[in-house]
Structures are given as C-alpha cells and as structure tokens.
Amino acid sequence: MINNRRSFIKLSSAAAAWLGLSPIAGADGYHRDEVEEVLNRNNLTRPSSQKSVINLRKSPIDKVKVAMLGVGNRGTGHAKLVNALYPDKAIITAVCDIREKQVNKTLENLKSSGQKPDVYTGDEDGWMEMCRRDDVDLVVICTPWKMHVPMAVYAMQQGKHVVIEVPASLTLQGCWDLVNTAEEMQVNCMMLENVCYGAEELWVLNMVQNGVFGTLTYGEGAYIHNLRDSLFGDEKYYNDWRIRQHIEQDGNLYPTHGLGPVAQYMDINRGDRFDYLVSMSSPPSSLIEHSREIEKDNEFYDRTDFLHGDMNNSLIKTALGRTILMQHDVVTPRPYSRINAIAGTKGYHEGYPSRLAIEGKGHEWLDEATTKEYQDKYKHPIWETLKEGIEKNGGHGGMDFVQMYRVVDCLNKGYPLDMDVYDASAWSSVVELSKISTELGSVPVKCPDFTRGDWENKRKLGIFEFI
Ligand SMILES: NC(=O)c1ccc[n+]([C@@H]2O[C@H](COP(=O)([O-])OP(=O)(O)OC[C@H]3O[C@@H](n4cnc5c(N)ncnc54)[C@H](O)[C@@H]3O)[C@@H](O)[C@H]2O)c1
C-alpha cells in the first residue's frame, strides 16, 4: 500500500514525510500503513445525513434535567455545582456510578436541597438505561478516559446533550465518532475544559480579542502537576485507571487544560486551525524509580514497563503559521503549572505567576499597579456577575462553577454551548497525534480538520457572543 502511487498522492504531507524513514513500528505496534489509514480519515466528507453543529440553536429548556454519569472525584463536585443551580435552572433526575458508595455520597450531598434522583449502580451497563430516560436533557460524563466516547455517543444517540470530562477522547476515531454523532443527532457535545473559564484565562482572552497583544505568533500550555502519590495510590482512581494509561501509551495524555485556553486565544476552528504536530518524550525514570518506593503489594510496585515518558513535549503548527508548545508531566517533583503563555507583536503574557509585558513599557514585566489597570479594564464580566455563586460554590477557585453555570444557562436559553464538539475533538486529538509522533520517532503528523473546512469562517466565542 505504501508504494502504491494512488495512495501516495492521497497521503497527507505528514505521512509522505515518513516515506523517507526506515521502517518503524511504535512501541505498541504503530505501523506506517495503519497510520496512513488513520490520517486519510482527515479527508472524510460529511455524510448527507449530517450537518454542522457550529452555533447550534435548540429550544430553550426552562429547567435542565441532568443525569450524572460517574460520581468519583470529579463527578461528586459537578453534582454539587448542578445542585447549586437547583431548583431554578436545573434538577438532577438520575445518578449513576458502578460503585454504590459513590452514589450514596452524592445522594447525601443532595439531601439538604431535597433532591432525590433515581439511582443506577452495581451494573457495568446501568448507565445505558439511565441515558434512555425521557426525563434527561443533559448527561454529565465523569468516568475514566476510555469510557468517555462510548458513553457520550450512546447518550447522544438517545437525543441527549452531553458534556464530557477531559480529554473527551483518547483516539482520533473517538473524536470523529463524537463529531459524527453530534452532527447526526443535532445535539450539543461539549468537553468540560474548565480552565477556559478561569479568571486569568478569560482576562487574557479578552485582551487578545481587544488587540492588546497585536498579531499572535505563539503560545505555550502545559499540564505539569505532580500526581505521583495519586497515580500509585490504591484508592484515588477507580481500578487505577489513570496509572494504567502510563503503561499503555506514550504522548501527551492530558493536553487540554493547557491547550484549550491557548486555542481560544488563537481562534482555533474560528479562523485558524491546528495543521501538524511533532512530539517527543523523556524516559519514564520518575515513574520507574517511584514505583520502587511504594508498598510491595501494590500492583504497580517495581515496574519498568511504563511506556509514558515523564515529560512529553509536543509542538503544533497552525494553518496561519503560529506555533504552540504543549507539555505534559505528572511525575516530576516540581510546582504545578499550565504555563498559559501567549505572545504577539505587541505583548506577552505568562502564567505561574501571571505576568504581563506590553510593547513600549520597558523590558521588564509590568509592575503590579499597571497590571491591575489591565486587569480592571479587561476582566471578563462573568466573574463579577457570578461573584456570589463563585464564592459560595468555588471549584478550582471558581472556574468550575462558572463553567457549570454557563452549560446550564446556555441550555436554559437555547444558546449553543461555549465549546463545541469540534473544539473537544481538535484539542483531544493531541492525545493520539502525540502518541503517533512520539512512537514513530517524532515525525510530523497532520491534524484532522474536524470542522471539514468551516474553520476558516471567523466567529465569536460563545462566552462573548451568547452572554
Ligand atoms: N477538569 C478537571 O479539572 C478534572 C479534575 C479531575 C478529573 N477530571 C476528569 O474527570 C474524569 C474522572 O476522573 P476522576 O478523578 O473523577 O476519576 P474517578 O475514578 O474518581 O471517577 C470515575 C468514576 O467512574 C465510575 N465508573 C467506572 N465505570 C463505570 C461504569 N461502567 N458505569 C458508571 N460509573 C462508572 C467509577 O466508579 C468512578 O467513581 C476523568 O476524565 C478526568 O480526567 C477532570
């Protein structure tokens, strides 16, 4: 197949680049032929039974009927946030978790407000019955990564809107499945990238939109979070789903907290798009060494078979020629950072801690007073509007409350959700794209265009347009 001229012509430029390389198979068996097939899916035309869900408008839903799917660490918190919007804006009609103790915890949390949702527990497939209920408008999916796509697709097929935790999908096929199902069913499918609602991120976004940074040239985002103890801890994640990913694959497993805001700054899918990506990883030394320090009866004690390098660096080139650096490191003993850097011809912002530099104001970071002037002038109004709810309900400093409020409020008003299925897929596609690139020697891989050409149309973000 690789020598066939027709398929060569059909190849993306990234796949063509591999032709010059010696035969490579990735650690878990990526072969060039398979990858070629995966990348050729980039060219899929939209079936006639589907239409774009960009700016999808639906009938307003007075009180959104919510089903919670997965109430572990994250879902427990989301249920509390939906509860904060009860009874005026939303009601939880059903809760599902395979572990009864998790369901009970959520029921306990809802008790004081008087909510008594129906419960599905103890059965691997109980969630399907829940998704078929008539009294569900929205399914909130907070299960382990591999379950996101099948659960979201099934829920959408039942005509429900879905919001999915991050990353929405681990695979390119999964991303396409989300896009195709949302388009076929004409429902919202949003990834819960809460960081896009952070006060700092919305402030920077507002400055970008107002031209403070001039023409954007590059950005940086990361998920640098020392999760060693949680990863190797018995109790933290259901069936240790997270550490298993580090054994199964290399690449950037969790790109969207850093990438989402940068993609919004750069109007990805709204005037620009990801074009291609290269990726490489360090050795998994922290994982290996730390595995020797845990209890001997832990399944992950003294393991050397981690495929996932401690630090993964990936670079994206956009269609407009801009570059984005993404980092993923959840095992090095170092402080938390999402970097949150954005550069333009007139200014630069970098997070951790937040600092601003503006053309014509010297070679240093702006001082506190001047930075505050920019903050006051460009802060996004939603943090002021929701001040009381943010203070009361919080969630990562308040961004989680803002996010859940927006999801519910948009459905109340029939507005499209702030982030659509194309955002979810483009941002999540970095997981498999980085895996392919890393495993095949850091080759460039072409990013799919999930919008099928619509990315060229400029449009405002929902958080500015539908507010
Ligand atoms: N956005 C954020 O800031 C943030 C923070 C934490 C976690 N997350 C994301 O949330 C998701 C869940 O992570 P977590 O830390 O809550 O993990 P977790 O293991 O605590 O929760 C997953 C839950 O899914 C349940 N589950 C598993 N199989 C099920 C099935 N067949 N039917 C019903 N329930 C099932 C488990 O019992 C568990 O309670 C992940 O995608 C993660 O990346 C996001």
Structure in words:
There is one protein chain. The chain is of the alpha/beta class. 37% of the residues lie in helices and 16% in strands. It is built from 20 helices and 14 strands. The strands form two sheets. The protein has an eight-stranded mixed sheet. Strand 9 and strand 10 form a beta hairpin. Helix 4 runs parallel beside helix 5 and helix 8 packs antiparallel against helix 18. It is globular, with a radius of gyration of 22 Å. Bound molecules: nicotinamide-adenine-dinucleotide (NAD). The site of nicotinamide-adenine-dinucleotide has 25 residues, from helix 4 and strand 2.
Could you give a quick summary of the protein structure above?
By secondary structure, the chain is an alpha/beta fold. Helices cover 37% and strands 16% of the residues. It is globular and about 60 Å long.
Keyword list:
467 residues; alpha/beta; 8-stranded mixed β-sheet; 6-stranded parallel β-sheet; 14 strands; disordered N terminus; binds nicotinamide-adenine-dinucleotide
